[in-house]
Amino acid sequence: MEWALSDYFILVILAVFVNNILLAQFLGNCPFLGTSKNMDTALGMAMSVTFVMVLAGTISWMVHKFLLIPYELEYLQTLTFILVIAALVQLVEMFLQKSVPTIYRSLGIFLPLITTNCAVLGVAIINIKEDYTFLQTLIFDFSSAVGFGIALILFAGLRERFALLKIPKPFDGTAIGLVTAGLIALAFYGFKGMVG
Amino acid sequence: MRIVQEFTKGLWNELPPFRLVLGLCPVLAVTTAAKNGLGMGLATTFVLICSNTLVSMMRNIIPSKVRIAAFIVIIATFVVAVELLMQAYVYSLYQQLGIFIPLIVVNCIILGRAEAFASKNSVMLSIADGLGMGLGFTASLTLLGGIRELIGTGQLFGFSVMSAHYEPFAFMVKAPGAFICLGILLAVMNYISMQSKA
Questions:
Q1: Domain ranges in chain A?
Q2: Average per-residue pLDDT in chain B?
C-alpha cells in the first residue's frame, strides 16, 4: 500500500506524542531516571540516543531484510539485533573519539550505556513487527528518538527544581521522580485524543 | 552459610526493582495484571539463573576487555530460548508480554548481576544470587501487578474479588498509573526501612 504524505505526518505525531516511547511504551526508563538529574546530562543523553537509535534502527532493518529473511533465520532476531547495536555503539564511539572529539567528550559516558538502553532495541524490534518500509523505519526511528528527547528534557527541567523543594523523606530520590513521571505521562496521555 | 546469604539479599536488602532501581521498563510495562507480572518475573528469573551460571563457569576464560560483549551474547542466547519456549507452551502469555520478552536481553538487572556478581564468584554462589534476585524481581512484579489489577479492574489473577458495587479506577492500569503506583510503593518501602532502622 502506498503511503500518502499525511500518513507519514500521522506516523510522526503518533511516535512523538501519542505512543511516546518513554511515557506510553515504557522503553528506556533506566536512563530516563538515571540521567535526568540535570539539564546538561539530559541533553547529552537525548542527543546520543537520537544518533544511535536512527542508525541502529535502519541498520538492523537492513540486516533483517537482507540477511535474516533470505536465510530463514528470523528466530535469531533478538541475538542479531543486540549484537548489531553493541557493535554499532562501539564503532560510533571510536569514530567520534577520532574525528569529532568535542562531541565525544560531551556524550562521553552515555554512549556505552546506550547498548543496554531498551528503547534502542525496542524500536528496532517494532520496525520489524510493524512491517515498516525503509523510509517508514527511518521516519519512525527519528520521531521516536525525538519523543524520547522531549520527555527526557521536560523531566530534567522539572527535576532540577526538586533541589529547591521540601520533599517528604520517604519520597526523596527516585520515588518522587516516578510520581512526577506519572504526571507527565498523564499529560501526554491527553494526546491520545488527537489521533483517533 | 554464604549461599543462604546471597540468596536472601535479593529478597529484601537488594530487592531489584525497588532497591537497585534497575530494569524498570518491564516493571512498568507488563504489570497491568498480576498474571503478566508473574509470567514476566519467571521468564526473567530463568534467564538470570542460566546466565549467572554460565558467566560464572566461564569467568576465567572470558578476557576482561570483551567481557560485556560476551555476557550479552550469553544472555541473548538464553532469551532466545525463553522466547521459543514461551511461544510453544504459553502462547497467550507470550502475546500479552509481546515486545518485552526479547527485551529481557537489555534488562539491566541481568547484565548487572553478571558483571557485579557472577563474574567474580563461584558457580553455586552465582546460582543462589540469581535465584534470590529473580524471585525478588518476580515477587515485586506480581505485587505491583496485583495492586494495579485490583484497583484498576477489581480483579485479581482474573477473578473478581471486589464487591459488585466497586467502580474500577481504570487510571491504574493505564500508563500514567504505572509510574505513580511504583513511586508510591517505593516510598512505602523507604518508609518501612526508615522505621525499622530508627
A1: 23-187
A2: 86
